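Weekly modeling sync, notes
Attendees: S.R. (lead), two postdocs, one rotation student

Agenda item 3: backlog of single-chain predictions. S.R. asked that every request posted to the team notebook include the full sequence so nobody has to chase files. The rotation student volunteered to paste the first one in as an example of the format we agreed on. Action items at the bottom.

Example entry:
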Amino acid sequence: MAEENGRFRLWRRPLLLAAGWIFTALGVIGLILPLMPGTVFLILAAWCFSRSSPRFEAWLLGHPHLGPHVRRWRETGAISRRAKLTACGSMAASFALLAVTDAPPIALWTAGAGLIAAGSYVASRPEPAREP
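Predicted structure, as returned to the notebook:
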């Protein structure tokens, strides 16, 4: 057991670093594509970098286009109304697409429960204060 735990620690940092870069790429794509939520992936990237590379975390937080989204989340936990609508709309569309397939009922129930939980969390977050 101790040997397995040691191996995990050995691979933990490189895996988190790789995940951070994958999430960063997905976040950039999400900021460009209208239906993909980019901020969520940038928040995940910052979390991964905070545990694997303080240098890349600082880079992401200081980036002029990517950093404000993550900093706003860390400071207030706020999600813009547009992002909430996009995220919840995307979740509803995903469920509708799943519902028209031959997915088994357990898949529909599981996906539905997960999407309702995620949508409720997103919708319950405060919206950022308007800047004067």
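Discussion: group reviewed the output briefly. The chain is about 80% helix and 0% strand.
Action items: rotation student to repeat for the remaining queue; S.R. to check formatting next week.
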